[in-house]
Amino acid sequence: MAITLIVGALGVVFDTTVVSVALNDLAEDLGAPLATVQWVGTGYMLAVFVAIPLAGWAQSRLGGRRLWIAALGGFLAGSVLSALAWTATALIAFRLVQGFAGGIMMPLMYTLLMQAAKSRDIGRVMAVITVPTALGPILGPVLGGLILHLADWRWLFLVNIPFCLAGMWLARRDLPDDRPAPGRPRTRLDVVGLLLLCPGSAALLYGLSRVDGTADPTGARVLVPLLAGLVLVAGFAAWALTGAADPLVDVRMFRHRPVASSSALLFLGGISLFGSMMLLPLYFQLVRGGTPLDAGLLLIPQGAGALLARGLAGRYMDRVGPRAVALAAFAAVAVSTVPFAFVTASTSEILLMAALFVRGVALGAAMIAPMGAAFVGLAHAEIPDASMITRVAQQIGGAAGVAVLIVVLQRNIGAARTPAALAAGFDHAFWWSVALTACAVPLCLLLPGRTRPPAPANPGS
């Protein structure tokens, strides 16, 4: 079942990182300014955020297998249409289709496997299901660079076709038929919650994405969507607690300590972890003069370390609990980021790649522990809400981390573009990353010490 879900998810994971290296090619071929073409990535992520809260409701109406196959079909259609796009506007529209389907698939992948495992061996389950997110940073930029070297940008989307077709065939064969019984009452769509949460979370992401280092982070283009998003999300929380019979996302899940602590750690951890992942390729390109393909190749040790760490982290999480694993992992991420706070244009690449490998090992464990801890002690019916809450927390935290470190980098670089000035700017930004990661370490103490036996299954679920 895990292999089935991973095969289908690989297209979604690769698509995010592969397209990021092709913005200049897209701008030239489609005759559009780079500011417009950037919406190929931004629009995709906004569509993901709109779709995530709908995953739980859609699963309750269709069943997990049918929803997974339908989402894969939607992603396949969006990929083919994107490859056939004739203008930048058409490409952005078709990327919205891809993003909506991908937003359904990612939380659904976690939900289906955790429900099948009945919350047992959470560490081992998380080590398996997070393989796609480890492979994306390793192979995505390299695959994108190779495709652009051998063919045109349209193949960036056509490469998704075999993953989607194989994933749909495997899903039909391997996933259990869990469609709702014909006489079972249907879950009603929380329309009010939909109108509050989906645009609210998308507005938060949009506001954070507007922080590009050239604009004032306190300007209207950033603050207006951020404030609007916060108001809408707060309105949804009030509605879900007081007025909704079947809320789109059950925020009462925050009463569970594992869900609340894991969400907080994933948000704050995302600020430091994903923000520094943005800094690394920029350092290799701006300071060392490398190409996008060069940067992708140099980052392979970090992805390889993250991939190798997953099995070990999963076993130790089941043995000693997520709290101990998270403490050690986040501390190791902070320590292994310190060498980058001393980088210059001539720093040894071997030294940096060794530090990246260690950082990748720590990073893999740091993501598994809180993601798995969120499901400790949950009943079968509670797993979809936990999947959506933690997914949104991680993504918004990552976007916030990128925004914060872009501002720090830009303020320290200023107008200078000499290698020495650029290296000094990156030194400051990496020190911020170290400090933010260190701040996340104490939060690990809020995670469960040991994984408890799963809650008794609900006979009606």
Oligomer: single chain
Helix content percent band = over 70%
State the end-to-end distance. 20 Å
Low-confidence residue ranges: 453-461
What's the number of domains? 3
CA-based gyration radius: 21 Å
- The H-level CATH homologous superfamily of the largest domain, spelled out, is MFS general substrate transporter like domains
Global shape: globular
What report would you give on this structure?
The chain crosses the membrane at residues 36-55, 67-86, 92-113, 125-147, 153-171, 191-208, 220-242, 263-283, 295-313, 325-344, 350-376, 388-409, 429-447. GO terms for molecular function: transmembrane transporter activity. It holds the Pfam family MFS_1. It is a multi-pass membrane protein. The protein has 461 residues and is an all-alpha fold. It folds into 3 domains: 1-175, Up-down Bundle (Growth Hormone, Chain: A); 191-247; 255-453, MFS general substrate transporter like domains (Growth Hormone, Chain: A, Up-down Bundle). It contains 20 helices and no strands. It has helices at 2-19, 23-30, 34-37, 39-51, 54-62, 64-83, 88-117, 122-129, 131-150, 155-158, 160-174, 191-209, 220-242, 257-287, 292-298, 300-320, 322-337, 349-373, 383-413, 419-440. The radius of gyration is 21 Å and the shape is globular. The two termini are 20 Å apart.
